[in-house]
Amino acid sequence: MATVSANSATVAHAAEHDHHEPQSFWRTYIFSEDHKTIAKQYLISGIFWSIIGISLSVMFRLQLGFPNMKLDFLRPILGTWINDTGKLDPDFYLALVTMHGTIMVFFVLTAGLSGTFSNFLIPLQVGARDMASGFLNMLSYWFFFMASVLMFGSLFIETGPASGGWVIYPPLSALPQAHKGSELGMTLWLVSMALFIVSQLLGGINYITTVINLRTRGMSFSKLPLTIWAFLLTAILGLISFPVLLSAALLLIFDRSFGTSFYLSEIYIKGEALPNVGGSPILFQHLFWFLGHPEVYIVLLPALGMTSEIIATNSRKPIFGYRAMIASMMGIAFLAFIVWAHHMFVTGMNPFLGSIFMFLTLIIAVPSAVKAFNYITTLWRGNIRFTPAMLFSIGLVSFFISGGLTGIILGNSALDIQLHDTYFVVAHFHLVMGAASAFGLLAGVYHWFPKMFGRLMNEKLGYIHFWMTFIGIYLVFFPMHYIGIAGFPRRYYAFTSYDFTKNIFADMNAFISLAAIFTFTAQWIFIYNFVHSLIKGKKSPQNPWKSNTLEWTAPISPGHGNWPGEIPAVYRWPYDYSKPGAKDDFIPQNVPYSQTPESNLPHENELIGLEKEIEAQNLNDQFNQPH
Amino acid sequence: MVYIVALLAVIFLGLAAVVVSRMAAVVKNASGPVEEGHIGLSNRINGMLMIVFFVLGLIGAAWSFLYAKQFFLPEASSPHGRHTDFLFWLGMSIITVAFVVTNALLFFFAWRYQHRDGYKAAYYPENHKLELIWTVIPAVVMALLVFTGWKAWRDIMAEAPADAQVFEIVGKQFNWIARYPGVDNNKLGSFNYKLIDNSNETGIDYTDEASFDDFVSTSELHIPVNKPILLKIRARDVLHSVFIPHLRVKMDAVPGMPTRFQFTADKTTDEMKNITGNPNFTYEIACTEVCGQGHFSMRIRLVVEDEASWLAWCKEQKPLLTSTPELANRIPANLKAKAAKYLPADATAAPADSVTASILPKGVIVASATH
Lengths: 627, 371
Known about the structure:
The structure holds 2 protein chains of 2 kinds. By secondary structure, chain A is mainly alpha-helical. Chain A has a single domain, classed as Cytochrome c oxidase-like, subunit I domain (Cytochrome C Oxidase, Chain A, Up-down Bundle), CATH 1.20.210. Chain A has helices spanning 8-18, 25-30, 35-65, 75-78, 90-126, 134-154, 184-213, 226-257, 281-315, 322-335, 351-363, 365-379, 388-410, 413-419, 423-453, 459-485, 506-536, 602-606, 611-616, and strands at 268-269, 272-273. Chain A has a two-stranded antiparallel ribbon. In chain A, a hairpin with a 2-residue loop joins strand 1 and strand 2. By secondary structure, chain B is α+β, with helices and mostly antiparallel strands. Chain B has a domain at 165-343: Cupredoxins -  blue copper proteins (Immunoglobulin-like, Sandwich), CATH 2.60.40. Chain B is built from 9 helices and 10 strands. Chain B has a 5-stranded mixed sheet, with no helix packed on it. In chain B, a hairpin with a 2-residue loop joins strand 1 and strand 2. The longest helix of chain B is centred in the first third of the chain and has 34 residues, at 79-112. Mean pLDDT of chain B is 86; it is low at 31-36 and 347-371.
């Protein structure tokens, strides 16, 4: 089992390692330090949160689509938030909107997506035994778990959860007397998010360290799969931006509880002039969006990385423009930090600043366009196999284009004057960030389910799930643009107070709500498929998608340490699909060039000489380190 | 449309039924033998569905646009609004072309290059020329859009001309309060949030003589047509945002940080009644920054009329000082005489000690904005 080159002491140590006592149930499944188990914990939590988050959106869509509907049937769940006449409470409407946003952005698309796939794929794809620190990784999950418990608990308190929008702008969120949702619910939101940020930082440090330090022999950065590039850049984004949100939240906690005036100035509320002067609500917005905008890419980049991998594998072609893909991800990651104020064009911020941020924002369209074109060119002259993962990846590209294009309109500060905080914005970001990332998540689950659980998901159900979801999401968000162009503001409980919204688009809103319910219903097919395949799914072969990356060289259900014996060395990039001359249409990364003389390109023959050197390296195998 | 919705609901139900029945069949087959690695009918169906989806989707998009168009806001009633409308539709046409072309390629390639037995995909890892082209083209288009947008933005956000008519709008939970500079000096008086109470909702500071003729309204804002307007915006409690959809005006109201928006309305309310064919047409101001329970109903009417009738209307309005004479207590003694003409005769005879009582003690620093 031990490495051939290792001395006898190491052999003895490694052998000892194979005979670990079986760990207790608690250490294996609950407080596990194994990255695969932690990934599954994140996945299950993410699925749980997505059910909650989407259910909340269905509830407020009922209110928006059918304002006269008697909602008494929701009383068993919502209790007194449904008033005596069967109407949804306006305060709780805002709570629903707020919690939907918070849950979907942070708990599903950040923790559920990065948490699951960064944890699962980084060690397996870079060729590591586990994360750099299994203990920090475990802490990361359990901080997330505590954050989840608090956030979930806040849904059930008497004054309701936080309800000032997911952006929790003060002074509304700072003043309990301003709003029901700014009472205990807001406190719980802030504490929960503080724990969540700790979890993200612990996770992020681990991801970065693992990618940098624990790559296997030969796995240079230029041979990393795009998934890993995406996870690495995502982790860096999170590491730099989440602390800023933490400080924003802490200052808000101070303003709420300790009488400071960071965000408060010259306020007269409920018959009382508050003593606070000198603070600025705009400061909070700057701090919030300094995270908030990178956050968009924190949820999107992993999805883009995974779908790059899935599209290349299932097109049986190398990803087009591997280096351009990396460069555009780096470009996006860098620009993500200097565009935040495009969320604030009409907040009263200095208009000159608005001009600067408009320029910077629209530059982001260039790397994004490059990515979209590269995806499309990867399909060109491919030999496409439509697995459910591939379908969801193609869906992601479509959403990314359709939603991204309207960003060009919104990033233009002059046009944003009219469209800011209307349904046009809602449609835009749900397509480009919400739906696209969710499709990345689903594609990832379908693609790596066999590696996670050793079984295959049912493909037919996957197809039905994809088409219903894909059509459903377009039916929800495409018409929403029209409502936005007509000037409908977002976060409105009802559209009956204004002539310009009264009596129009009631049918369109009803249609959107029906489409949302339809889409939500379709997700139960996925849940069913997931649970059923988990128990009764067909056993997976070792490399079901004939993929090149390292995780498929590990056993079908990898144990602790991922590879029995030596970790494979890496000799080539991960996209040698359909290489001319090769007998199969894929050559895994661990196949040396010396074994494939028939398909080597001229410069690759020169690399054969380096193989000995790669094999001689003995880097960072955690099982070979004394511990 | 209601019928369409009903129809679609039926279709959805039908689809759901199909799914349930399929699911039963699938579950039955799940344990049965499945050929290893065979790529067959399902792949072709999915490939075909790509094209079907694209074609039907495009038809649906075009039809729904033509249907929804009637409900879009009418042409803007402000010059800057018409300019941004033009830029919006220009941008929309460019992105629509990009939308159709890229989605068409995506779905077409997906269908065209679906798996065929015995076919090998092209090994085509990169093409620098191609990549350069599609980096440069979006960059150039983007530069054009940015430049036009930036010019429009710069003009809209420029300083208001000196002769602009000033108004103030104050947001609170949950209504707007309009303050007029008054007909005598046409100047807004200064304010201080600590002076706010039920009789003085915007915190007008009566130690400033420009305040004496100011008047307020919570139901409507009257503005003159074809005259530059400078709207000074502030908030009393939490964030609000002034949104005048027909004028393409939006700006947040921020407690502690007055903001402003300058514009010109060039169609009166009456003209808009003719243009829209709606005898009840009225301009409206809404709130677009979530501010609590009543966020969705912070309506105040905006009346745009020609300058003569606007002036006449203003003259009919009573200064706040006149309608609420007890505010006279706050006027310092040296300005009493100047305020006298706004007050009923007996109010000027108020006891002198109340004057000093209402003035803030010296040395107390309060943030107050002056104009």
